[in-house]
Amino acid sequence: MFGSMMRELRCGCVAAGLLAALPMIAAGQWRAKDTEWASYAADLAGTRYRALDQINAANFNDLEIAWRFKTDNFGNRPEYKLEGTPLMVNGVLYATAGSRRAAIAVDAVTGELLWVHGEHEGARGGAAPRQLSGRGLAYWSDGKEERILYVTPGYQLICLDAKTGVRVAAFGNKGAIDLKQNDDQEILPDLTTGEIGIQSAPVVAKNTIIIGAAFREGMTPKSMRNNKGYVRGFDVRTGKRLWIFHTVPKKGEFGYDTWLNGSAEYTGNTGVWSQITVDEELGLVYLPVESPTNDFYGGHRAGNNLFGETLVCVDLKTGERKWHFQLVHHPLWDMDISSAPILADITVDGKAVKAVALPTKQGFLYVFDRVTGKPVWPVEENQVEVGTVPGEWYSPTQPIPSKPPAYSRNGVSESDLIDFTPELRERGKAIASKYHLGPVFTPPTESKVDGPLGTLTVGTASGGTNWPGGSYDPEAHTVYAFACTACAEPIGLVRAPKAVSDMNYIAGTAGEEVTILRGPGENAGADSPMPPKKRSAGGGYVALNVDGLPLLKPPYGTISAINLDKGEIVWQIAHGETPDVVRNHAALKGMNIPRTGQETYNIGTLVTKTLVIAGDGQITTTSEHPRGAMLRAYDKKSGKEVGAVYMPAPQSGSPMTYMVNGKQYIVVAVSGGAYSGEYIAFSLPAAE
Amino acid sequence: MRIRDCWLPRRGAALLRPYAICFLVVMVAKAQEGASTSRSVWDGVYTEEQAKRGEEMYRKECASCHGDTLVGGGGAASLTGGTFLSNWNGLTVGDLFDRIRKTMPQGSLGKLTKQQDADVLSYLLSFNKFPVGKTELQKQVEFLREIRFEATKPGAK
User: Fold this and answer.
1) CA separation, residue A342 to residues A97, A214, A261, A630 (Å)
2) What residues of B are in contact with residue A65 (Cβ under 8 Å)?
3) CA dihedral A100, A105, A109, A113 (to 10 degrees)
4) What is the end-to-end Cα distance of chain B in Å, rounded?
């Protein structure tokens, strides 16, 4: 059904070389070396941590580019949104790349391309909800065979021989599994155009591959009915489906009664699009589940809506639910659980706890006993504002953790507005006056021409910590997480014309034509021929900035270090150079403004033995560096910046590190603006 | 010249001199590059009429991803405010035009003519409060590369 392409460039001699350095085998089970990076987040615990220290505070500024890998030609157009984190095993770096979402293998020392594999999916790829290069792939080995697994934009799971890039014939159907089939639901309207896909990297634990699902952006769905984002486990040797977890329960299953009026039957989405975490020892899988259909309006899905925005723990062998904790009842704010859960063995009040910690868009770090699901510190049900949108169903309470304190702004009041000068503050207040303001869990409003236009939120759709998630230092028992603290999101609802959607309300602004919003990467991949829809002009929109300055006051973006033994924020710093528009703004001339950080939501952190490393998310030009973005290193104990190296474009995928032949490398994906996707590898100079 | 060799470290005074010289060379080279580019987005490089046409086209072809207020949506690039200005500050209008031509609209690449793309670009300039002028933004990328994209008004620093 699908054409395929494979380019075997130079695998013979490399494969021979690799055989001499096969990975460690312990009791028949392959284990990555601690100098390797064998899964998306370094390990299955979601830590993004490697205890390497060759690159440290004393020499970070000496880093130079070891190699760079441009991804323009892996697809029929360049990509400007390269979000991948590569893997590195046995001296070979594996990654996804380009608008084709090709899988590539490159020499980890030189950057030389070893093989590339791409799938031409035609109309199916063109209709995919999540296109472009995705976030990465998975590696598996039993000590003999080595396999690479990734999911195409068209939602096929592909199994490749890691040595050659050739499909493994014994897996699934000649090396592929059609994920739109055997999913306990019929993907509608058909296998070609049926909305479901995923952009995250698969996870392989023991011999089970775990795959979630993603959909279009959910602010303006065409229908209350959609496909559902179940999670499945597959045998890594055969591709056989081992289990499925229904993220929207079927009739008779636990949680079905949290969907009133039979709404579980037709409500969709509720996928797991972020990274999945596994405790292999306990045999437990941690699923961060996203929002149900319509991010901001739940009038067609009365009830708490399990397992929407719920952390679900399932059995690795069976997929059976062990425990769950719903972070948001009846989700209305697009607080998808966007980050990989982080496994942390901590000590609280002298007692050892096997914990799971969860950074979130709403800036709470939720910490649970990962065996029982019980919160490590009390999570209280708090009364929250009940809204007035016709037909909406509201949960009167929402759970709010007592510890750690919120590490990112998650509500908007006047005190959060721009305050560089009294004049700017007044102008900020004038903009904010058009909206309903309030703390976390202030509900969306119906958008009205005379106001409010909506609820002005932060810590919702694009706030706090998004898909890159956090990092964890298992020695200091500390989570490090970037957060966008100024990503303001107006949430207004408008009645949906029947021609646009069968829902009563979708996101929009009063006085404007109601339209369906698409997400980045949707209809942008190499197979997409879709003509865009039409709309006409209108007025009444409000720009959420004051002369280019962010509406909310600094910091715009932060990195926080949160100790999990104590549940306390150890340090918090503004991350990212002060944007040019702030630094050079006429209204701020002569003012001494401390570093503001940057309004961006896609910054992932890397933790090493001594450093926290993350790049800027925006381009700046300063007296200290030419136009570009800096990859920064912070002392992980204090948060003090100890070094920075130049990158030609912002960090767009989270950095990773590894060591080969006694040399440590840091690889990071950069792209954005005029700069197309590129992986850059840094290392220390060979000679002083 | 490799820019990476020219990054001026914050620490290590002993290292400053060679890096500083290198940095200076780059800056001089950049200044020379810029010398041929006499106009900037602050010089009134589009007309009101063109921006109106561009707005109509934006609403039809761009707003579904980049949003009604140009702030982007669910991660689609912001076309206003700090992120947008940072992305393009120091480049030229031609670079932005080229990016639009190469990748937009999503899903129907090549659908818009050069003229329509220039119109959309003029709307982006208008929305971002760059001053209106008396002549239209041209549709030849070579000419657009002569217009510097500067986030802040010259002389306002």
Assistant:
1) 26, 21, 36, 27
2) 2, 4
3) -70
4) 29
Q: Which amino acid appears at position B119 of this protein?
A: D
Q: How far apart are CA A241 and CA A285, in angstroms?
A: 16
pLDDT digit string (tens) for A89-143?
Answer: 999 999 999 999 999 999 999 999 999 999 999 999 989 999 899 999 999 999 9
Closest residue in B to A546 (Cα–Cα): B81
Q: pLDDT tens across A431-471, in order? A: 999 999 999 999 999 999 999 999 999 999 989 999 999 99
A251 and chain B in contact, CB less than 8 A: no
Number of folded domains that form chain B: 2
- How do residues B35-90 score in pLDDT, each as one tens digit? 455 899 999 999 999 999 999 999 889 988 888 778 776 557 889 877 788 889 99
Output the six-digit token pair for A244.
């499925």
Strand partners, A399: A381
A5 has a pLDDT exceeding 80 = no
Cis ω for the linkage preceding A378 (within 30 of 0): no
- Residue A566 has a CB neighbour count (10 Å cut-off) of 17
CB proximity list for A598: less than 8 A, separation 6 or greater: A556, A557, A575, A576, A577, A579, A616, A617, A618, B82, B83, B86
CB A137 within 8 A of CB A118: no
Q: Nearest chain A residue to B55 by CA: give it.
A: A537
- Do B51 and B19 fall into the same domain? no
Give the position of tokens 């001594």: A610
- Among A579, A383, A620, A622, which residue's Cα sits nearest to residue A486? A579
Q: In a 3-state reduction of DSSP, which class is residue A436?
A: strand
Residue A43 lies in a domain: yes
Tell whether B53 is covered by a domain: yes
- Chain A: residue whose CA lies nearest to B85: A581
Kindly tell me the sign of the dihedral angle through the C-alpha atoms of B88, B91, B93, B98: negative
In the beta sheet, which residues pair with residue A573? Answer: A559
Dihedral sign for Cα A286, A679, A524, A192, please: negative
The answer as to whether A200 is a domain residue is yes
- Using CB atoms, which residue from B71, B90, B107 is nearest to A621? B90
Domain that holds residue A674: 3-388+405-526+540-683
* In A300-458, alpha helices (H): 422-432
- Closest CA relative to residue A407, chosen from A328, A334, A479: A479
pLDDT tens for A545-597 read 888 899 999 999 999 999 999 999 999 999 999 999 899 899 999 999 999 99
Closest Cβ–Cβ partner in A535, A580, A642 for B63: A535
A113: in domain: yes
Q: CA A456, CA A113: separation in Å to the nearest integer?
A: 47
Asked if A532 and B64 come within 8 Å (Cβ–Cβ), the reply is yes
Residue B88's domain spans which residues?
39-148
Beta-carbon-side half-sphere exposure of residue B84 (alpha carbons within 13 Å): 24
Residues B92 and B122 in one domain: yes
